[in-house]
Amino acid sequence: MGTCSPRSARTGSIRSRACARGSSSARRAAIEPLREWTEARSGTRSRPAHRLGAIARDSAPGLDRRADVPSIIGVHFRRALVHRRHFLQGSLAATLATTLPAIASAQDRSASAPPEFPPIDERSVWLVGDSAPPDPVAMSARLAEGVRADADVRDRYEVGGAVESMERAFAALLGKEDCAFFATGTLANNIAVRVLCGEHRRALVQAESHLYRDESDAAQRLSGINLIPLAAGRASPALAEVRAAIDASENGPYPMKIGAMSLESPVRRVDGEMVPLPLVREIATLARSHGARLHLDGARLLLAPPSFDIAAYASEFDTVYVSLYKYLGAPFGAVLAGRVAEIAQARELRRVFGGSLYQGWMPAVLARDALPAFMPAIARAHRAARELVGALVASGKVRERSSPNASNIFWLEMDEAFAAAAFERGRAAGVRLGRWNGGRIPLYVNETILRRPVGEYLGLFLG
């Protein structure tokens, strides 16, 4: 039996290029009658039926001459499949022969180049982002420890267990009556705004907010809520903007009440700036005087500086959303806090929106257990970052250009060459620094800054 036989094809042996070329020719010869038959059937090629039958029978020696044309075509089709298998195997062999050396060469080059990001371990530092990237092994270990310490963690459809204890902890932190677990912040935002709007399906939002820019128009598409954007390119809408928007809505040709206003703070798209508390209070007073209620998208609220009063800030809002995964070590999740009546409605809508989970204890355990240690840790991280920025500014090579309403992001002006050298030293040391862009780099405050002394970071910048 030849090396290109169907039997040897089934054994999976790799064919040579010559075998592949031979198989390809045979495949074309075998499939030509099938092609002509299908073209004739579809009307794309004109050929007398008796001629087509003759072609098929002449090309299938050994078959009953009385056999109908479709049966003969079927034989050709099966032969074509066998030849196609030979062709693919030969092509695979040729492809591997040319690509494997290239892959090996690329691997050699990547092995010699330093990684852009540090390894994800207990010593690596990420001065970009709100936390280090998730480490599945460490996360699993923390989860196992949490379950061993608390045997009663299981919930049923987010009722009881670790979900309930986690909800109580966040309600206390935010100064609210009740709190509900959600699988995502997008769901928490949308349900909060829907509950607060009630029958008045019009809401004011920041143009740069997650609710307006990053949630696929869910409020409009799923709840029929018309979002009116304010403060394009800025974190905070001016009080006059809010007043004008309410006036235009209530006193237009077809008056409509504003049902709710959502404020994101910090605003991710605007350098992590926060809406200052005095302005929040003015907006809240104005909105409530017109019957509108307030929602806070506080996904990163807990990253604020230690002088920030979380409970006082949250008190100006009817509902508050906080993320569980951005910096509290959970794989996913969010909480929505507010009064008992609003959170009861939110839980009902969570189910309506398909957001109920049979068990939510896994992210709940991780976030609940991380919360007590996180609050003092992020305060220490802010003090360390402030010490580092002060020393860099004192060196004369760096200028701080942070927002006065900054949350956990400092902006540092420096020369491009200075920033590039610091980045390379950081890469070699396992410290990820921000990239230079437009004359500045960002420096994020998160818990990983506490893994090394401030002097070590200063050395990465100054050399």
Describe what you observe in this structure:
The protein is of the alpha/beta class and 463 residues long. The protein has three domains: 6-110, no CATH class; 125-130 and 374-462, Aspartate Aminotransferase, domain 1; 136-369, 3-Layer(aba) Sandwich (Aspartate Aminotransferase, domain 2). 51% of the residues lie in helices and 11% in strands. It contains 16 helices and twelve strands. The chain has helices at 6-10, 17-42, 49-58, 69-112, 136-149, 161-174, 185-197, 210-213, 218-223, 239-250, 277-289, 310-314, 340-352, 361-394, 416-429, 454-462; strands at 125-126, 178-182, 202-206, 226-230, 260-264, 293-297, 319-323, 334-338, 399-400, 409-413, 431-432, 440-444. The strands form three sheets. Strands 2-8-7-6-5-3-4 form a seven-stranded mixed beta sheet, with helices on both faces. Strands 9-10-12 form a three-stranded antiparallel beta sheet, covered by helices on one side. A hairpin with an 8-residue loop joins strand 9 (399-400) and strand 10 (409-413). Helix 10 (239-250) runs parallel beside helix 11. The radius of gyration is 33 Å and the shape is globular.
Sequence-ordered SSE layout with sheet pairings:
Layout (H helix, E strand, L loop, with lengths): L5 H5 L6 H26 L6 H10 L10 H44 L12 E2 L9 H14 L11 H14 L3 E5 L2 H13 L4 E5 L3 H4 L4 H6 L2 E5 L8 H12 L9 E5 L12 H13 L3 E5 L12 H5 L4 E5 L10 E5 L1 H13 L8 H34 L4 E2 L8 E5 L2 H14 L1 E2 L7 E5 L9 H9 L1
Parallel strand pairs: 1-11, 3-4, 3-5, 5-6, 6-7
Antiparallel strand pairs: 2-8, 7-8, 9-10, 10-12
